[in-house]
Amino acid sequence: MANGALAELESYLWTAANILRGPVDASDFKAYIFPLLFFKRISDIYDEEFEIALKESGGDEEYATYPENHTFIIPEGAHWKDVREKTSNVGQALQYSFREIEKANPETLYSIFGDVNWTNKNRLSDALLIDLIEHFSTKNLSKEKVEPDILGQAYEYLIKKFADLTNRKAGEFYTPRAIVHLMGNILKPKEKESIYDPACGSGGMLLEAFHQVRKSEGDTRTIKLFGQEKNLTTSSIARINLFLHGVEDFKIIRGDTLRNPAFREGDNLSKFDVVIANPPFSLKNWGCENWAQDPFGRNFAGVPPKSYGDFAWLQHMVVSMAKPDGRMAVILPHGALFRGGAEQRIRKALIEKDILEAIIGLGPNLFYGTGISACILVLRLNKEKRKKGKVQFIDASHLYQKGRNQNYFLDEHQKQVLEWYKSYKDIENISKIVNVDEIEENEFNLNILRYIKKVDPEDKITLKEVYKELQKVEDDFEKSQASMIKILTKHKII
Prior knowledge:
single chain; alpha/beta; Rossmann fold; two-stranded antiparallel ribbon; about 10% strand; elongated
């Protein structure tokens, strides 16, 4: 579908959000718009599938309603058109449809519509809901009319727009996509692999894995996506996101990953080929009190400080990697690289296990809700032979486009960082391959600038310049000597 059609779809969705302005706070738009969009999409697909089955059966309407002919079951009285017919108590009709659809599809759509109170008429009057439903009704969102890729892109556009509107809270559900793309390009998920995000937000990193497999012409039907997310609304957004993109095999569970990890095999955590995440920075009250006796062995490198949960996430992710070739990338605040105490001991254990492959320093103010700089840590259970006993440090802190309220990491920036990562060599001011012995000498401080010594180009003197300077000094000396001899001769001293 042409870019014009995508732009039209994006405008259609953004107009829907603007209908809510006033009665609904901008930070809550996503809790209302995404469930309605999904409801409209699955209702239109149901109608599309009904017509296909009707044609196949020679007009047998009962056959056309059979569950096996439909992606999702929509019970009688719970279809979009049923709500559209209502002129009063519209919110009640919506709430009824959502709950009936969830009950009819317990394996796939449990709690997917969130917990918004649609019957609150002080916030959602009948007139407002009718306007919203009529606006959504202006487009047919069946698969034939709107491909999953296009609807998925429009949905991602809307997620970013909502993130821009609610900058302070957006970090909970949105990671700038060029950074996600960089992480995906480094980890290179492949077909038949399992991918896991323990803090999945709106599902962007899981989708990146899906796109990576498709880009490499792998069979996306063979990959398995797993995510856990604490926030109910955000976990619903992630599931809708994956459904709208046409992802077939995924499981996203709402819950607190550090206190109650959802994916287990017996008494152990499940293992995944690729683990990727942007967990909350320096999370407080993360469950420190139980970590010393963690039943899943996630304290293998120590217990992180009570006020900084960064290394709890990292250790959880390490334990979740599958042998022999499990790999992971995680975004952490820069302070996690050099803070002392318990975190220093955890860094020591990671270095001694020789699973830390690379550290990439990012610029300031790239993430929603925080101005601090962050970094990407890349870890592998089985590092390449040439990388064993070494860590690559990359300083990409200068790569960003300055913005008024926030800086931007662009696709051109991620391509440059990926090039440096792949080159795996020392690049002045940019990249340094460091032996773990040197890291040990620095007491396991991983501050990037400790290893990449910045050299100001203006302070550099080339050999050619040195030679020219020496020549000038020599010429000046010879002239001075000749002048001195002339004076001494004149005065008959020599």
